Amino acid sequence: MGWDPVPGDGLFYTEHPVQGSLALAIGLIGGIALTVGVFGKCSGGDIGDCEAIGNATTIVGSALYGTSYLWDGIGSTIAAKKYKKGN
User: Fold this and answer.
1) Which of 11, 24, 50, 61 could make an S-S bridge to 42, C-beta 3.0–4.6 Å?
2) By percentage, how much of the chain surpasses pLDDT 90?
3) How far apart are CA 13 and CA 46, in angstroms?
4) By the 8 A CB rule, do 19 and 73 touch?
5) Rounded Cα gap, residues 66 and 69, in angstroms
6) What is the C-alpha R_g of the chain?
7) Which residues fall within 8 angstroms of residue 82, CB to CB, at 6 or more apart?
8) Quick one: how far is CA 34 from the chain centroid?
């Protein structure tokens, strides 16, 4: 569950709602920024500046989404292993 493309859900299912909410929020912001950076169109004006902003948005979005994805995957995997040991 933690390694699917939705950040935060694995943490919810392993009873870590605060971490899940934070991972979801960070992942949502990162996913939107990544989408805008990749699919945003530059028109009119100075295209060089627009492309630079698009590249920066893509990098920041990737970093945020990737971090939340890893946080969810690793955190929920660790929590599931602890739960399994306890039962």
Assistant:
1) 50
2) 56
3) 47
4) no
5) 5
6) 17
7) none
8) 9
- Summarize pLDDT for 1-25 with one digit per residue, the tens: 667 888 889 899 888 999 999 999 9
Structure token pair of residue 75? 């955190």
Number of Cβ within 10 Å of residue 20's Cβ equals 22
Q: Average the pLDDT over 26-41 and give the result.
A: 93
Please give the structure tokens belonging to residue 11: 């943490």
DSSP character for 87?
Answer: -
Q: pTM here?
A: 0.82
**13 touches 76 (CB < 8 A):** yes
Cα angle 58-75-25, degrees, rounded to a multiple of 5: 45
Which letter does DSSP use for residue 55 in this model?
A: H
